[in-house]
Amino acid sequence: MKENSLCAGGDEEALYSNDGDPLLACVCGMVLKGHCEPRFPFFTEDGCFWTNCTTKLLGSSSKEEQQLLGRTRGMCHMSGYESVALVPTNVNGKILGLIQLNDPRVGMFTLEKISQYKAIADKVAIIVQDATNISEAISGIREMITGFEAGVGEERSAHSDGDV
Predict the structure, then answer these.
(1) Phi-psi region of 23 (alpha: psi -120 to 50; beta: other; left: phi over 0)
(2) pLDDT tens digits for 51-96?
(3) Of 12, 38, 53, 60, whose Cβ has the fewest other Cβ atoms within 10 Å?
(4) What is the distance between the alpha carbons of residues 7 and 133, in angstroms, rounded to a whole number?
(5) Would you say the pTM of this structure is higher than 0.85?
(6) Which CATH architecture has domain 27-161?
(7) Rounded to an integer, what distance in angstroms lies between the CA atom of residue 120 and that of residue 98?
(8) Is the separation of the CB atoms in 85 and 117 below 8 Å?
(9) Cα(151)–Cα(34) distance, rounded to whole angstroms?
């Protein structure tokens, strides 16, 4: 229940930015918004977050890292996860979501593994985007058929009322 929403303030009291977008909490929100800073060792160039030891990350980060990570809720760590990866799913430069990988063991990720997860995540994003496009196209076809059938019904009524 504690992690049911990524909105800052929770679903009931969600906070919004000046442009009306919900403010997202924690590192998940940073990844989803594309606010990753690759100059930090826990972010990659392509927007992933990863750590092999949340205890060390949260306890011995530099002051600048602590300021950045100070926005975390720490629920992954409090839930016993040491290795955490947040991998955005991108299509055409747009982030659709993220895949989260958690493990209670220390040292479960490498940069190479994160890169492989990123490639998989982007393939998943393409599939999700394609499925959404297909679903929208099917809905459009259904609307056209419904409109066509309604028109045919009206034609039949008009023909039955008039001279044949």
Answers:
(1) beta
(2) 999 988 887 767 777 777 766 777 788 888 999 999 999 999 899 9
(3) 12
(4) 27
(5) no
(6) 2-Layer Sandwich (3.30)
(7) 11
(8) yes
(9) 48
